[in-house]
């Protein structure tokens, strides 16, 4: 009986590890450079190094971006802090987290001196309208809301132009009744990853553990 219980415990552990492993492997980047922009630009998560660069321009903004990405603050908090873009944020939700956009080597600009970038955004769905790019310029120390030159909801891609490159996030008006859940994307409300199967893994362990206890009791009844 002892050997059977040990075997069952090992089975529970292996199952939990497999669930968590699948969860980690299924996650994709919030945004990724695609099309003709590949090899010219890159987007990275806002880690300490990127946040430190933002802090050089404005410490309060760096903290705000960090908190928004952590889900402890929202676009409403940004609107209160930056009245200049408050009206453009009204009624919109975060589609992605803030990520740092930068160029790789020399990049040709458009005729009006801007960088043209195309990104793949897995969280874009047909239930979203008025899609915009929210940008904090560390060079000019200003917030701005950019209207993309193209939004392809079917292929989940967005093309836009920026005067300079620094942290960006995608925002949009979200029709919850039409929006399609995208487990590889991010939550429209918080901009944090919507894929969270760790609780399910925990639940699976609890259920299997309970089954083991029941089996043991029946065996000894």
Automatic annotation (TrEMBL):
UniProt xrefs under InterPro entries: LPXTG_anchor (IPR019931)
Cleaved signal peptide residues: 1-24
Keywords attached to this entry: Cell wall, Membrane, Peptidoglycan-anchor, Secreted, Signal, Transmembrane, Transmembrane helix
Record-linked PROSITE patterns: GRAM_POS_ANCHORING
Membrane spanning stretches: 198-216
Domain named Gram-positive cocci surface proteins LPxTG: residues: 187-221
Domain of life where this protein originates: Bacteria
UniProt-recorded name of the protein: LPXTG cell wall anchor domain-containing protein
Annotated organism of origin: Dorea formicigenerans
